[in-house]
Amino acid sequence: GAVVSQHPSRVICKSGTSVKIECRSLDFQATTMxxxxxxxxxxxxxxxxxxxxxxxTYEQGVEKDKFLINHAxxxxxxxxVTSAHPEDSSFYIxxxxxxxxxxQYFGPGTxxxxx
Amino acid sequence: GESVGLxxxxxSVQEGDNSIINCAYSNSxxxxxxxxxxxSGKGPQFIIDIRxxxxxRQGQRVTVLLNKTVKHLSLxxxxxxxxxxxxxxxxENTLQAGTALIFGKGTTLSVSS
Lengths: 115, 113
What we know:
The structure holds 2 protein chains of 2 kinds.
Chain A: E1 4-7, E2 10-13, E3 19-25, E4 32-38, E5 45-51, E6 57-58, E7 67-73, E8 76-81, E9 90-97, E10 105-106, E11 110-114
Parallel strand pairs in A: 2-11
Antiparallel strand pairs in A: 1-3, 3-8, 4-5, 4-9, 5-6, 7-8, 9-10, 9-11
Chain B: E1 4-5, E2 10-14, E3 19-25, E4 32-38, E5 45-51, E6 56-58, E7 62-67, E8 72-77, E9 86-93, E10 102-103, E11 107-112
Parallel strand pairs in B: 2-11
Antiparallel strand pairs in B: 1-3, 3-8, 4-5, 4-9, 6-7, 7-8, 9-10, 9-11
């Protein structure tokens, strides 16, 4: 299957700082990328859908000014958690898809801990 | 709202047994279903998928069954091994609509030797 990478895999930051997470499709062009968040012992919750060259579409309850998503190329999307707070600590997972009708492939996730 | 859910939150089996994990979905428009395995601290790993024009699909040691009449999906794992211990999620979407996968709550599979 296709490979999706994330960087960093783990990050610890101080409250009030911003953190950028990168998601890359390594062997295919990702027209659409998705960002999920997962709290311990819970399922994956969709945060936003991002199409290359367009503004992201955020799910209800997800603050677009706090979770900035950029999808400037067909192989890279970034999620920036701005002014992070301890409640933002979570496991962030991206996934990527070539075209509508194709499977989503998931990255390995990024563990964010905000102190 | 419509969602995908799982009947059992945990399943404990002995090594060598067959495991069956169930999933109920409510969106009748869904036409694509996937089972994922997630180990602690890792992203979801694709196991097997099935489209709505099928009712059964087999992989290596795994079988997915789809019953569209009652909107039920199951994952069968043959000869379960300790390495199969993980959380299993079913997910659904409507492929051509380009929507994101929606995940169920997850079932923890624990395999003892």
